[in-house]
Amino acid sequence: MRNGFALLIAGALFLSPVLGESLLGQQQGGAQPPASQQGGGQGQPGATPAAAPQDGRQGGGRQGGGGGGRGGGRGGGRAAAPAAPAPRRPDGRVYLGAATPKQKGLWLPPGLPPLVDAKIVPFMAWSKGVFEDRLKNELEPHTRCKASGVARQFLTPYGVEMVELEDQKRIYIFDVGGPHTFRTIFMDGREHPKDLVPSYYGHNIGHWEGDTLVVDTVGFVESFWLDRRGTPHTDKLHTTEKFTRLDAATMKYEVTIDDPGAYTAPFTGGFNLRWEDGTELFEYVCQEANYAGELMVGTAESVSRSTSIVP
Fold first, then answer.
1. Which residues of 152-178 are buried (b: 16+ CB within 10 A; e: fewer)?
2. Rounded distance between C-alpha atoms, residue 82 and residue 69, angstroms
3. What is the mean pLDDT of the chain?
4. Is 8 in contact with 16 (CB distance < 8 Å)?
5. Taking the CA of residue 139 as centre, how many other CA atoms within 13 Å lie in the half-sphere pointing to its CB?
6. What is the full DSSP assignment across 115-175?
7. Which pLDDT belongs to residue 281?
8. Closest by CA position to 54, among listed 155, 177, 227, 200
9. How far apart are CA 222 and CA 200, in angstroms?
């Protein structure tokens, strides 16, 4: 009995550094758990999708977590393995989303990046004033469950899903969080209609330039922000967006803003989206999951509910 106990102790001492190194590797460079299990944003770790915050100053949802793609390598230690090449169709063109019918995945935002450095944005006097006020009073329409177009769509917690339907010659971009809306990109060579009815997503026509999807959009309402910092626009807005899948885990997003009603010249900004493999759309009730109270009152103590608010 005494000899068996000694062997057990010796075995534990031998295996403990090995197990410790294995666990450390999993925490630093290995696969992360699905982001839906990593916490719900707004300082609420462990929130389930049904209780996750709608949108908050801290990024909301899963923006800061590891998840799929390049999720490892945080906090030093082993570097994350290079991402695999972008998946391609038999004809050689890249997939914007899942490469097989069984694959699941979403594109998530990289935290809260500005669309472009505000110091180089060619503001008009009024648009600069609106932008500066929004930095203090984050009364964003998205917090009130309004859809958000252009770059703001991709800065929404829980990400977006991109679906290509070749037979319909359309690409759909589905929002997970927020008001559960979707955007349609027409790929059939049509032009913008002359009697266009303005909307949150505008009228989108796209074409391919190599591995880059180029989307030309007009016909926006003014009732949303261009990004989460509060960059304004008018109904004269015309955007050119470029989506380039650099590898299996990274999508480069670039947009040129041309709005003569708000800016003295066009300007370009963007950021990279990251792929979270194995995650799909889930049910999300916007108003019930809205815990971002500071985005509804700003610097005031309360906001009147008697009239609609379009900051």
1. bbbbbbbbbbbebeeeeebbbbbbbbb
2. 9
3. 76
4. no
5. 18
6. SS-GGG--B-HHHHHHHHHHHH----GGGGT----GGGGGGSTT-EEEEEETTTTEEEEEE
7. 82
8. 177
9. 8
Q: Terminal CA-to-CA distance of the chain, rounded, Å?
A: 77
Q: Which segments of the chain are extended strands (E)?
A: 105-108, 160-165, 170-175, 182-186, 203-209, 212-218, 238-247, 250-258, 267-277
Amino acid in the structure at residue 254: E
Residue found by looking up tokens 């339907």 in the block: 165
Using the structure block, give the residue that is written with the tokens 């790929």.
187
Range scoring the smallest mean pLDDT among 107-116, 197-206, 261-270: 107-116
**Of 35, 42, 37, whose CA–CA distance to 59 is shortest?**
42
* Token pair recorded at residue 165: 């339907």
CB 148 within 8 A of CB 224: yes
Distance between alpha carbon 174 and the CA centroid of its chain, in Å?
11
> Residue type for 301, please?
E
- Sign (positive or negative) of CA dihedral 217, 223, 227, 231: positive
CB 267 within 8 A of CB 251: no
Model's pTM, two decimal places?
0.72
Q: Find tokens 């290995």 and name the residue.
A: 30
The SS3 of residue 109 is coil
Report the C-alpha gap between 61 and 65 in whole angstroms. Answer: 9
Query: 57 to each of 26, 132, 286, how far by Cα in Å?
Result: 30, 16, 16
